[in-house]
Specification:
Bound molecules: iron/sulfur cluster
Distance between the termini: 55 Å
Oligomer: single chain
Helix content: 40-55%
Strand order of the largest sheet: 1-2-3-4-6-5
Radius of gyration: 18 Å
Number of domains: 1
Mean pLDDT: 90
CATH architecture: 3-Layer(aba) Sandwich
Structural class: alpha/beta
Number of strands: 6
Number of helices: 6
Strand content: 5-15%
Order of helices and strands: HEHEHEHEHHEE
Low-confidence stretches: none
Shape: globular
CATH topology: Rossmann fold
Length: 178
């Protein structure tokens, strides 16, 4: 009997976990940190042509307390680093971060100066990077789908992108080819 109850409650827990991940998967609330040209690219993604509402991620919030997906799109200077970290700390849990473009991901070669942070991962954890200057809007959608598949614990999407040459792994982190 005890075994029966354990099995049933285990199945129920799995079911609830599945429902929660499914809901999170289709309801990202992004907070964009658009500091340069990649920010404009992000605006295109949210607009009608690419229409991220098809992925349930169109409810862009400008308060970190109402957001769970930070999209850093543009150059982050050292002066801004503390502010970015504070905004990230104020976001609701669980939260994710997409580093959109070369500037956010590495400081970008052309701007590697004393005033520019060489990658936001120096101050906050990043879930997925998107390479490119600027990356294609489609690359952002691939990153979003990658995060969705990660939420559901599925590895097939990563393999699918890998076979198409659209994703690589660097230091154990996924990088979408922009
Ligand atoms: S990666 Fe390129 S397009 Fe994006 S903010 Fe930097 S310079 Fe601009």
């Amino acid at each position: 009997m005890a075994e029966y109850i354990t099995t049933k409650s285990g199945a129920f827990k799995d079911f609830i976990k599945g429902v929660v991940s499914w809901s999170r998967k289709w309801s990202f609330w992004p907070i964009p940190i658009g500091t340069a040209c990649c920010g404009i690219e992000y605006m295109a993604i949210v607009a009608s042509h690419f229409d991220i509402s098809r992925w349930g991620a169109e409810v862009v919030r400008f308060s970190p307390r109402q957001a769970d997906l930070m999209v850093v799109a543009g150059t982050i200077t050292r002066k801004m680093a503390d502010v970015l970290r504070r905004v990230w700390e104020q976001m609701a849990e669980p939260k994710w971060v997409i580093s959109f473009g070369s500037c956010a991901s590495s400081g970008n070669g052309i701007y590697q100066t004393y005033s520019v942070l060489d990658g936001i991962d120096k101050i906050i954890p990043v879930d997925v990077y998107i390479a490119g200057c600027p990356p294609r809007p489609e690359a952002f959608l691939e990153a979003l789908e990658y995060l969705q598949s990660k939420l559901e614990g599925k590895k097939e999407y990563f393999e699918e992108l890998k076979q198409k040459g659209k994703i690589i792994q660097m230091k154990g982190k996924p990088v979408i080819i922009g």
